[in-house]
Amino acid sequence: MEPDELRRILNDPRIIEKILGEIRKVSKKLDHVRIMHVCGTHEHEIERFGLRSLLPDNVEIIPGPGCPVCVTPKLEIDRAIFLADKCIITTYGDMYRVPSNKGSFEHAKSEGKDIRVVYSITDAIEIAKAEEKEVVHFGVGFETTAPTTAVALLNSPENFSVISVHRLIPPAILFLLSQGEVKVDAFLDPGHVSTIIGTEPYEWISERYRVPQAVAGFEPADILFGIYLLLKQILDGRYEVENAYRRVIKREGNVKAKRMMNEVFYVKDAEWRGFPEIPDSGYGIKRKYEEKDAIKRFEDELRGFEYEEREERGCRCAEVLRGIITPEECGLFGRVCSPSNPVGACMVSSEGACHIRFKFS
Amino acid sequence: MCLAVPAKIIKVNDRIGEADFGGVVRGVRLDLLEDVKVGEYVLVHVGFAIERIDEKEAEEFFKIWGDYGTR
Ligand code: SF4
């Protein structure tokens, strides 16, 4: 089936109405339910299609830390900018304007540093092939993107290396549950992260915290179907990991991609912007591939790098990322802070909850 | 950032291929999947095919929720 055809059917008002009908039936038997998703693309599609307004009043969907560029610590950006004195830095467009202590990649570029936006890590490799200079790729993203970095680590020119700032989703869900600072009744798990890791890594989290989860795709019917499965689980008193995106996701995920990630990465405790360190939530590059690890490769140069954490005054991005407040509850939202004049990362990134809320409100 | 878009594979040359994104043809890396074949539908993320789209499962979905306009 042509993708356009598939999308057309998944957007068919009759399918959407049918799922909504089932959602209404189930939700009538429930108290207030809070479902957290952990995916910027989910938030974008939920707002774009106005799905919140279609849902019953007692079904609340809140965004969590699902925007990889928003959760990337400022230190990582500044460290890459520091290396730009010596190297060409390549980064994805989403990362380009995200504020750090020193400014941003965009700001560094305006000061004459060689920072290049790439669509794919393969473009960064092409740059390395064409240039004499060292090329350092800023490897940001969740499990969806990490395998593409793994491919590059396994096969790239001598003058190419990576700063790995990859972060992992299940440990973040686990952390939110263990902290208990925000009440969440169920998780809508991210479709494309789960395409790679499968549904299996979430299972023990559901067991341990007795929390229902469902992985979902990104068309309105996919998202609503995921929400329906979660409501049904809550009603039945079940806590499982269900798959609302079967045409793409398997329980075991993409085995080949996982194998490549295991080959090059090890799991480490990692900082997320807005969070303290989250155990086992990041990918470092294994020693075997350390000449591809920019932090190791430029160890001597980086001795000169100094960093002191500064907060943007009044920005509550951290609480937005943890699901404690909605973007509107930040006093700067829409007044001082807007996409054309962003204060925090959540307003810069097109996947940040503040940016999305502003864009569609 | 985790955006992935469906496309149809139209050319395969080892780990590099071409895919049709609803009329726009772009190069796509096939490193992350085994034995990709011409005619298959895949999801593409930052230039890499990350998974196949299973048409049978898509049809199952429509069976549950009504196969409006499927044929
Ligand atoms: S609206 Fe702006 S200042 Fe407020 S939390 Fe969001 S990004 Fe920060």
UniProtKB/TrEMBL annotation, chain A:
One family name in Pfam for this protein: HypD
Entry keyword annotation includes Cell membrane: no
GO MF terms, alphabetically ordered: 4 iron, 4 sulfur cluster binding; carbon monoxide binding; iron ion binding
GO biological process, one term: protein maturation
Keywords: Iron, Metal-binding
Matching InterPro entries: Hyd_form_HypD, HypD_1, HypD_2_sf
Entry keyword ATP-binding: no
PANTHER family with a match to the protein in the record: HYDROGENASE MATURATION FACTOR HYPD (PTHR30149:SF0), HYDROGENASE PROTEIN ASSEMBLY PROTEIN HYPD (PTHR30149)
NCBIfam families assigned: hypD
Record family assignment: Belongs to the HypD family.
Protein name: Hydrogenase formation protein HypD
TrEMBL record, chain B:
Single GO MF descriptor: carbon dioxide binding
GO biological process: protein maturation
Organism superkingdom: Archaea
Pfam families: HupF_HypC
InterPro entries: Hydgase_assmbl_chp_CS, Hydrogenase_HupF/HypC
NCBIfam families: hypC_hupF
Family: Belongs to the HupF/HypC family.
Name listed for the protein in its UniProt record: Hydrogenase expression/formation protein, HypC
UniProt organism field: Candidatus Syntropharchaeum butanivorans
